[in-house]
Amino acid sequence: MQVTVVGSGYVGTTLAACLADAGHDVTAVDIDSDVVAAINDGHAAIHEPGLDDLLAEHVGDRLRATTEYESVPDADVTFLAIGTPSNDDGSIDLGGLTAAAEMTGEALAGAGDVASSPNPDDRHLVVVKSTITPPGVAQVREALLAGAGDAADRVELATNPEFLREGSAVDDFQHPDKLVFGTESEWATEALESLYEPLVAATDSDVPVIRTDPETAVMIKYANNAFLAAKISLVNDLGNICKQFGIDAYEVMDAIGLDDRIGAKFLRSGVGWGGSCFPKDVDAIRAAARKAGYEPALLDAAVAVNDGQPERMLELLDSHVDVAGERVAVLGLAFKPGTDDIRNSRAIPIIEGLQARGAEVVGYDPVATDNMRERFTDIAYADSAAAALEGASATLVVTDWDEFAALDDAFDAMNDAATGDPVVIDGRRIIERRDGLTYEGLTW
Ligand code: NAD
Questions:
Q1: Strand bridging mode 327-331 / 179-182
Q2: Is residue 18 among the annotated active site residues?
């Protein structure tokens, strides 16, 4: 099929590369010419395992990138994978997405007649991949149809929320646990089925497909993320209680995970969730619920627990050492391992808290340093974890990159002159306790 993917960020680039890999002919559109140039050069503007390999294989063949919308009229399907950031009140800003929807509509209208489309019945399907709330669907449709003008009656909007995780985006996209098609016609459902057919055929297992209306489809995405975020906050709340009693929360969670109503996954307590999805999505659905007249008490509490975890980490640090004037290493700047994304990383409130205490902060991350350099210009950055530890009186472990589990003797280079044993506060349970180190786990 001919596919246009508008927006080439984490989701759009992964979608474009994976659809090309599945045999479709894909045009990726982005307003950022650097992003477009990078893709045409065979590499992504973002760090995502496996993505560059797919781009290198398919760019110039089944995949190309452009800043123009001219491929839209000839496409069977156009995806919109534009960012939907938070407004100050937590609701999502649909400005970028509605602008892209309108431009997509205009591209279709500019084609004069959608008859240039290879669809036998001259219809064009525009699919929202971005995460939007149920009331947002009507807003995006309105923008699309306004742009399409006379062609509006042959344009249809569908939603197909994306569940991929940064750090394993390609694998998640190629092996989804479900596909959710939110459509208003059998024709649109069939178009999405045809599109995903080669991808589903390549997986070992049957992929459940949920066929529903556009609003229910996007609500499934919010319910999914809100449930997971709340699960971690519950685990962190219980973990904080364990810590008060001197109990190892991981021993407790391993045991409750044996109950199949709870499940063994997502039971690791620590410094909390971040990234571009959980905070934004939980905020957006809370704001949308409030606007509709419902107070989401449990989701409010999930956010409050999450917001408190970095401060708990800093309080544990305070209980061992006054870091004013001391070098303090922050290991891990990305919001989770496997990505360079620092959006809502727990490292941000941790660094702010250390700065407020007068510490000399040195940060290290295998891939996210450049991004954090733009956020904090006034801290030092090390080239390796071992270099960050050198001379540090305390270390805070914020992201569970595997390499932090193998630091071993690097801790010997920490500074124990001023404060007694150097202090390690582990927010992710990745460092082994060792002699000569004051070690505190956040919930163990
Ligand atoms: P992103 O910010 O990384 O990428 C968005 C891209 O869209 C940017 O490259 C930007 O230049 C481009 N863009 C903006 N306006 C445009 C326009 N008018 N025309 C063409 N391009 C335009 O965003 P993302 O992380 O890929 O997220 C996209 C959507 O998918 C969001 O709604 C997000 O919530 C959702 N989502 C994200 C993830 C994730 O892990 N990042 C997972 C699932 C769903």
A1: unpaired
A2: no
